[in-house]
Amino acid sequence: MGGRRRTPSIGVLAMGGIAVLVVAAPAVRIVRDHAVAIVAVVIAAAAVVAAGLYARRRHRRRSVEREQDHLRAVLPFHAMNDKQFEHALASLCRSAGCRDVEVNGGAGDRGADVFATTPDGRRMIVQAKRYNIGHPVGDREMQQFVGGIGTWHRYDVAVLVTTSRFTKSARQTAERNGVRLVDNTVLAQWNAGTISAPWT
């Protein structure tokens, strides 16, 4: 048979209450004496948090606006057919000071859609990939480009331009083989004249 549970006496409860008051009293006095400072700290902390959230939203909004701007800048290229896109790139090359610019794209071009000589005298090959935004240039296309120009052409600078983007593996292959890459963002900036030509 179990023992009867003892109920704390009134004296014990009173002593516990006094102990709580003794411990809490200084804290209450601190809050009372420094109420204005505490409120100021809380307000300042809330202001810092709010400012951080606002800055993050503004940065995100500006990123979206920049993305929309460069997409608008490449929309004319998407409206072109392949041949028009090649001629548009040839025109960009001429505007950047290239000479002997020649459009070569079509069946049997072996990777060279545009030939040109850069302002400093280097022989350049440009390949154009007019792809939709959701269709990136992959490693297979990059290897075909590198293999084609390496076998059939003499050049100093190789540039691959797309209205889309490049996969990670395609970028790695390009880096290993010294190919300059122009994706839709860089193309928009080049077309707007806000960056130097990709072969510089």
From TrEMBL:
The keyword Nuclease applies. One of its GO terms (molecular function) is DNA binding. GO terms for biological process: DNA restriction-modification system. Gene3D superfamilies: 3.40.1350.10. The chain crosses the membrane at residues 12-31, 37-55. PANTHER family: MRR RESTRICTION SYSTEM PROTEIN (PTHR30015), SLL1429 PROTEIN (PTHR30015:SF6). This is Restriction endonuclease. It comes from Nocardia bovistercoris.
